[in-house]
Design goal:
The chain has about 350 residues and is α/β, with parallel strands linked by helices. It has a single domain (about 70-340), classed as TIM Barrel (Alpha-Beta Barrel), CATH 3.20.20.80. Helices cover about 35% and strands about 15% of the residues. The two termini are about 30 Å apart.
Length: about 350
């Protein structure tokens, strides 16, 4: 998902993202030469996934140090006011409501947004680790160098920011409704490598690159999400977004399809978005969240989880806990578990540099 923000273009993009969660899917048949040797299970077949040993988990040396034990708990929370102060207040209120140690703040940015900006500095002032989700542009234009100057500006500003963060570029690239701008796995991988290459030239190694398809890209073999993987040398964190949808598809069966892929790669996993978006039957939201908590604990390769909390009227969904005491109680059980209270990584002695 992505938040509804000011602007018609963003609203349309958000509506398309939510529509995907209702089950729209088209075949994605292109393959990538750099795709791993991963064969998705047949439709309707859940793989058997054993927890992966974590002794060799590492990034490529970019971004924050990994938690030794447990996971970082994070959230994106729709604010009442679209200001830095409003976003900080919304995250604080969510942490208070859920009684959670919310270590990671999530922020969405359009392709041409100037960031890090006031919101990132405001979150950093409260000691939060951050994940920035950076929307995409036409992958072939990126590949051909059309946006090199813009990419370099973003890399320079992130380097100047000076603290480790997670950078999630063009998440859910496997969504059928993004095909016109993503084009193909080959084009996506080429664009990824160009962006990361510019960050390397600039020296913005405080940004860990997060590769994040939708979990349905693994549940549905026709979407072939694995074909979009740029390679272990290009990726610092693996990631996926997972929701139950209206049918309340189980957390574990969906995640098993992704974790079968993740088990083949020595990278930590962040669940970039998860949440209960629809009412369901009595107790169903709470049961799904308890299933999620149990699953995450069984898979120590998962090092961070980020809740998506928003109430929207068009399209209608509500992943907050304001009118959901059963769901809130289940989430509070999760936050009470020390596994979900991993301490934040150390901040460089100089802290974030001035804007």
């Amino acid at each position: 998902m992505a938040p509804v923000r000011e602007g018609a273009a963003t609203m349309k993009r958000f509506h398309r993202a939510v529509a995907l969660l209702l089950g729209s899917a088209l075949a994605v048949t292109a393959c990538s030469e750099s795709a791993p040797d991963f064969v998705p299970p047949p439709a309707g077949t859940a793989p058997t996934v054993s927890p992966r040993a974590t002794d060799d988990l590492a990034t490529t040396g970019r971004g924050p140090e990994l938690p030794e034990k447990g996971v970082w708990l994070g959230a994106w929370v729709k604010p009442d006011w679209q200001t830095p102060e409003g976003r900080v207040e919304a995250l604080t209120a969510f942490a208070d409501q859920t009684r959670g140690k919310v270590t990671l703040a999530h922020m969405f940015h359009e392709w041409e947004d100037d960031f890090p900006g006031p919101t990132e500095y405001a979150f950093q002032a409260t000691g939060k680790l951050q994940m920035i989700s950076w929307s995409g542009a036409d992958t072939r234009s990126i590949r051909d160098g059309v946006y090199d100057q813009l990419i370099r500006q973003r890399a320079e500003k992130i380097k100047q920011f000076g603290v480790p963060l997670l950078l999630r570029w063009r998440w859910e690239m496997d969504r059928p409704n993004l095909a016109q701008s993503v084009h193909s796995p080959e084009d996506y991988v080429a664009a990824w490598k160009r962006i990361r290459g510019i960050f390397t030239e600039v020296g913005a190694t405080n940004a860990a690159f997060v590769w994040c398809p939708h979990v349905q890209g693994f549940v549905d073999p026709s979407r072939n999400a694995a074909a979009y993987y740029p390679g272990d040398d290009q990726v610092d964190w693996l990631c996926t977004d997972v929701y139950p949808g209206k049918e309340f598809e189980g957390f574990a069966p969906q995640m098993d399809t992704f974790m079968a892929f993740a088990a083949q790669h020595p990278r930590p996993v962040v669940i970039g978005e998860f949440g209960v978006t629809y009412p369901g039957a009595p107790g169903q939201r709470g049961a799904w969240l308890r299933e999620a908590g149990d699953y995450i604990k069984r898979h120590p390769q998962i090092k961070a989880v980020v809740y998506f909390a928003a109430k929207q009227t068009k399209p209608a969904y509500d992943s907050t806990f304001n009118d959901d005491p059963e769901g809130l109680a289940a989430f509070q059980e999760l936050t009470a578990d020390p596994w979900f209270s991993a301490p934040p990584p150390p901040t460089p002695a100089h802290g974030p540099r001035a804007q």
